[in-house]
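pasting for ref
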Amino acid sequence: MSKPTVPMYDNYIGGRWMRAASGNTSENRNPANSDEVIGNFPDSSADDALAAIAAARSAYDSWRLVPAPKRAEILFKVAQIITERKEQFARDMTREMGKVLDETRGDVQEAIDMTYFLAAEGRRMYGQTTPSELPDKWAMSMRQSMGVCSIITPWNFPMAIPSWKIIPALVCGNTVVFKPSELTPLSALNFVRVLEEAGVPPGVVNMVTGGPIIGELFTTHRDISVVSFTGSTAVGRLVNQNAAPHFKKVHLEMGGKNCIMIMEDANLDLALEGCLWGGFGTSGQRCTAASRVIVHERVHDKFVEQFVARAKALRVGDGLDAGSQVGPSISEKQLAKVMSYVEIGQNENARVACGGHRLTDGNYARGHFHEPTIFADVTPEMRIAKEEIFGPVVSVLKCTSLDDAIEIGNNVDYGLSASLYTQDINRAFRAMREMYTGIFYVNAPTIGAEVHLPFGGTKATGNGHREAGTAALDVFSEWKSIYVDFSGKLQRAQIDNNPVALTP
């Protein structure tokens, strides 16, 4: 029996699909079954990256002059096409990154929602008009495009996150060079194919797959005006350093060590559901994952007992199997990181309340599977309570009060998302104010952001910019203030601003 033919995929540069200049490729394998090769993708070089940048720079001068409502019409078509192909794209995504099918459907739906929402901004890219302090003078502001934007995205949301960045960049009149994660190039390619089919002109969007050399050029080249990166804090720091010499606008969305705080008056059943979904959804491979649970001492023991029982019952398996609730880690490297942190937690004398092992029997043997793992008896100083693991590992800490929980919650380098379970509205509002995070939930887990509100975090999570909502426009446009003087004479602001005489 002959082996199935492995598809060969291309870069997209200047409106053409083409192989890497070197001819080199890399395999994309299914993390639930490493025997399955999903496709071969270009392992691109500097030549490919430079060609993409040149194509985007050439296309910018015409694209920026397309009226924003007309740009938006193309993007509405993008959302419509993705809607029609949602199931196909979700299945492709599960095969290449592992999360269960319900979650990949949600990922694709987020791309649809984001595209519809931000396409509508093509008719709402409002500026300001304001009275001048001088007579016969008009004052206003407008957004202007910036040029070529480099988009560098991770593997955990391989269609949603590109939509967060590419769609606002396009609606603002910029062109794009796009480097997706080497681990999930098929979902990125599906997204770019739709952009092409919907009528985005050649050169306006360019995609190059490959390793660090692509990322380096996409963050250092002088023709790049904006860099938008989502990934680890360590790499984000390098991106920022690379972009600094040319004063590029840099948007960074990086790590998280998010907490759910559970008070003694909480609806414990609801909190348990939230902790399971927040901690083990996407196998914990979310920047918003609830990897810390801080529980009031009065309900701590009861909560841990029930949390462990529910985690043990979670079904781990291939994301395409209908019964699976937790999929694999994305790669052998990521699984090794998870296992190393389990060892670190044990060495720190935290108690493994459940899990703690790689799964290797039967259908697990060819994949990167790890048991849902809960650590109890965790203290705030432990590494497992402070460092991002990005896997199905949750640390449970004990607190004595809301103030104690907030202090523990804020005592990490990151500030992306936090959550409080309580029936006390006063506590809820205090926690909203005191938690130094970009996102906060009450009686819901730390995951589940919606497209019409800003997304992003504080401290080592980000650098002040936000994705999603209308805040995304601020990343991909600049403000221009305009003054029109029709007085026919020189008027000097702040100098010729004489008081107006009032007649009685």
